[in-house]
Amino acid sequence: MIDNKQFRFDNGFVGIDDVINISESNIVTYLNENDEYLNFIQRGADFILQIVSEGTPVYGINTGYGDSCNVVIPEHLVFKLPRNLYTYHGCGLGQFLSNSQVRAVMVVRLASLCKGFSGIRPLLLRQIIAFLNEGIAPLIPSEGSVGASGDLTPLSYLAAALCGEREVIYKHQRMDAQYALRLSCLAPLQLQPKEALALMNGTSVMTALACEAYTRANYLKELTTRITSMASYALDGNANHFDAFLFTLKPHSGQENIASWIREDLVLPEKSNSGRIQDRYSIRCAPHIIGVLADALPWIKSHIENEINSVNDNPVIDGENQKVMHGGHFYGGHIAFAMDSLKNLIANLADMMDRQMALLVDTRYNNGLPANLSADSGPDAAVSHGLKALQISVSAWTAEALKLTMPASVFSRSTECHNQDKVSMGTIASRDCLRILQLTEQVAAGMLVAVYQGVSLRLQMPQHAPLHPRLHMMIDDLSKILVLVFEDRALQSELEDLLNAIRLRIWPLYSHHK
Ligand SMILES: N[C@@H](Cc1ccc(O)cc1)C(=O)O
User: Which PANTHER family match (predicted)?
Assistant: First the structure.
């Protein structure tokens, strides 16, 4: 829980909102310095040292890693081993994670390590917390994790930076980690046995990205609902499709909720079934499309929050009872399934909006609005093409989003000499999901232009239905970014502003966002 703009790390619950709030702001974080808690953590680390001195073989402490687990590491090399782990995993490629994504990774890794079953010292936890508070963000390439054995390669960049190696972003500059540590008066860590494995052998990259995906998806749920209300109004649609009683008869609660939001945005005609009796499915079935997302989000959230609050590490160390448990908790199957599912749900929203756009711009379906929603009715109207090209862009973004919905998890392949012979691919699923979200947000930005145009033009028609104050307000909000497209003009910068507004979740919509 964030209290007084401060966040305390210990073995308490960490929610998606906490991850997002800390990653997007500079909330001060601190470790619970209560003796009982610190002693509990320290006992795990002491137990590791006891294992080392006794010489009993324990995986990853005095053995090689992965398939090399039968290589016994002599005592004099045991302290060298952690550095080798993060060093040989320095083979990531691809775009770097963003600053806020890296911060989310650190919060999520802390949440797991703070449970106290990883055999690490409080010092290590304090170093990650210092990185968060100082604003030091390791440069983490996003590609190279199969998501079981955790996110070994991307997390190796966190482990290395904590020890003053590789590169970080600090005060908006890319620099050697060692230099950033010096500038912020932090000493580089020297990892003890098990500590590099504890940092790297977990699902924190895919889970951090999943927190972002969940948050963006939750906002899109509301935004696509509002867009549907506006599209229905612009098309002079039948608001009775969203009748309250009708929705009690098919009681998926998320779907009912979406229908109620649309209903509250529209002024329901007294006479039901006036005008066109049935709208096309992208309008009439919008609660059934967005509702699937609304009903899935709670379980997606519970998968993500279970993962955040799990010990996703191996071996698991119970310092209290002096037990080592060898298992496979680094396997990201739940996140993989949640993100593969979310990809499908979000791409369906893009598809729905693309169809709504097709209705709005086409005089065969838009109930009297001008072709391509062009507002130009002056002497030069013939040269104005309105939103013609915008529709093409929206179709392209939609197709690209749909193309990426192939589940990542079914592409599991045996790797690392068949030790990791079944893997989750959860990190790829999370990354694909974020790309689909980006494309779908672009489609939503395009649709905001279209519904702004469509509603404004409908209001200019002599006989139009009353516009509900909520939609009036949305039109007012949009008019701060958008101007009616009259003569042809390039729309890119307005689309960028809309996209920015979506990413910042600036409209409160149906619930309050930040
Ligand atoms: N995750 C593996 C450990 C591992 C670590 C590093 C590797 O390079 C490979 C495997 C396990 O716990 O079994």
Answer: HISTIDINE AMMONIA-LYASE
